[in-house]
Design goal:
Helix content: 25-40%
Shape: globular
Radius of gyration: 23 Å
Structural class: alpha/beta
Strand content: 15-25%
Number of helices: 21
Oligomer: single chain
CATH class of the largest domain: Alpha Beta
CATH topology of the largest domain: Rossmann fold
Largest sheet: 7 strands, mixed
Number of domains: 3
CATH superfamily of the largest domain: von Willebrand factor, type A domain
Amino acid sequence: MNVRMKYRGWAAAALAAVLAAASACTSSSPKPDPNPSPTPNETARPGVLRILAGSELQDLTPILDEARKATGVTVQFAWTGTLDGADAVSSGRADGKYDAVWFPSNQYLRLDPTGKSKVLSETPVMVSPVAVGVRSSVLNDLGWGDGSKVTWAQIGDAAAAGKLSYGMSDPSRSNSGFSTLVAVAAAFSGAGAALTEEDVQKATPQLKQFFTGQKLTSGSSGWLAQAYTRAEPGKVGALVNYESVLLSLNKTLPPEQRLTVVRPQDGVVSADYPLSLLSSAAQSERDSFQKLTSYLLKPEVQQRISEVTLRRPVTAGTAPAAGLPADRRRELPFPGTRAVADGLLASYQNELRRPSRTVYVLDTSGSMEGSRLTSLKAALSRLTGTDDTRGVRRFRDREEVTLISFASSVKWAKTHAVPASGGQPGPQAELASINADVQSLSASGGTALYDSLEEAYRVIERQQKAASDDRFTSIVLMTDGESNEGATDGDFKRFHDGLPAAEKSIPVFPIKFGEAAVGQLQGVADISGGKLFDGGGSLDGVFEEIRGYQ
């Protein structure tokens, strides 16, 4: 694989789907949501620091409540993924809208000179390395003792031998997944300095073996943890995530599901959570930033942060919370350029990870006529584009994509297999064929939602039997109305209860659009172990966000 040659034709303009979400931190803040929903961002006002941040910082709510009382500074968060947030900063879309950014890491942002220039200062607040949480019974079977001497190579060998299966968040969406991808590439290549294309090429055979063990993928750490707890016994033996996330998860798990946190002996990639002031911030916000960072670095506050979040303190002399080891693993090198980082991400999506099987169940009833159908076609058309530097958006190489158009019944179902890049034919012709089917969608009829959803499961059953393969499999359901024909929600539940275990575990990701019945869609998500998305703001953004779960 030659990363640069393979992807140099892709446009350099990276995709950003920043979720403009504001949530003022007050003493009455609700319990953190593992899958936060965005709300409209507020305009600047005195004493408020508007911060674009990773959603895992919800656990800082009690700390920031205390900071507000001590400093008079209220933090207003807007949630985004780290890489999408970096794009927002680099493109200038964060200018004037946010005063600061607070991602798990600024390493990706620093690779872009424009993005780097937009950060006036940054202050690391806490540290958490990427680690592997291994179910204790699996750890014993592997003979790894307490896990303190395990290396990334051993983890990869166990995955390749079918002895270790794990869940990991999507590296194009989540910094924990990206950090894991970088860590294994650096460890397998033996790189002693910044990762290069040659290092990635050297590591590719071991990377392919390592990712054969990935059985769960997710666009967020919260949903990944939920999927782990729902997985059938024996399917998933480990989770790869931040040390703090794994330790926090253990507090909620029954004994048989608890994880031994393995920090690979040969090195890690850590998040240092730098609170970063944007150069576009006004002077009053700069003053608020200084007050907040000074407060957060106080030894007693650092101790409190460590106890609440299970992350390690950065202020010298502050002891980590009980249960956190005091030692640090060496930091593995990061890609030296944006091209290497984006090439590694695109390689993961199109070559390294297990391929996907994705079924889109699309409401084309009469109520979709006009602008709604136009929006649907535009959103799906974007998934067939090739101007996707990191492989975030478009249908992946080796992905099997089925489109089901339904109204009063299923109108048609068409399946496409996207070929790998570099061969003949390449993926472009099949992507164009998918787009042609998308553009042929037409609106008429009622809404037989449950009948059509049941047909999606039957399609997958036939595909799995014919191919005898093991893919990431999911269903996306988009509707703008309420099911008013055919099977009922009770019928669907009985149908789902009767499915074999493998098919029952296939998640459905419903998209609420227009006047869709939220209760029906949430019920489908709950039964299948999926997640409900709201397409009211942007269908483009929602379809792209769901890619992280497929």
